[in-house]
Amino acid sequence: MKKTILILVSLAVLLSGCTLSVDSVENKEAENSEDVYNNEEIENDIEYKSSGYNNSLFYEPKDFYSTIPKNIDKKIDGVKGIVCTHHLLASEMLHEAFLKIDNIEKYKNVVIIGPDHNTTDTKNIYTTQLDWMTPFGRLEISQDALETALEYESIVIEDSILEREHSNAALVHFVKYYMPDVKILNLTLPGTLDLQELLDFTSFLEEEIIDGETLLIGSIDFSHYLDYDTANKKDDETYKKIQERNFVDIMNFDNDNVDSPQTLVAFLEVMNRLDGELTFINDKNSYDIISVDKSETTSYFTLIYN
User: How far apart, in whole angstroms, are the C-alpha atoms of residue 66 and residue 188?
Assistant: First the structure.
């Protein structure tokens, strides 16, 4: 019984990043590295803010290293973008995504686009100006990319939001580990953006920020809260629409299919503009990884475009 309870608690933490309280992470980081993380708490201890950089909050050393795949088959050259999860339960899939990229050292910049899980009343696309303090060293913000991004009227700096937004924050230590010399631009997309607003944004992104030395990461999770069999059916439906690049249908999806239609459409449109060709790498359901609850699951894809 105790073992079952422990597994369920572990699943709840790993599945979301979103259920991880800032205070609990902050306390753990303080225990492990008091000299590295110097945090400033604000008023009610719920709002979180760093004084000089963003902390890599969503990181557990044991889970990180134990999920690195031992064998990776043929790597893919000329990668323009990847779709990957931001749930640390599926860390092995995250490692796999980076390990599949051939000549990964050639990239100078990474741009992450992912859902804004917490904002429902704005059309702002949030970013951060603060470097990330990761367990593998400081991951610097690309100041050139940030300066350009801020020319787009909807892009706004909100450091504290980015630090806690796991669609971006859960990936930064993977970026630093596999791409130690790159700089990064983080962007969160609200669920309020319509198709035309997304096309305008992706036009700006592709024309002004993405170049041949930039890797675009679409941080996206797929079917949420459905039972295992239904989730698999929804994943088949979603993957078909991805192959077709059917933006209209994707924009009508909800959590049954994908956590952020906006992020998926934005990523696919950039790949359209870059003539990116889809390579399917992997898909899994949370129940495939930890077989605890088959009635409420989350699913993940790893896709590479080159």
Answer: 29
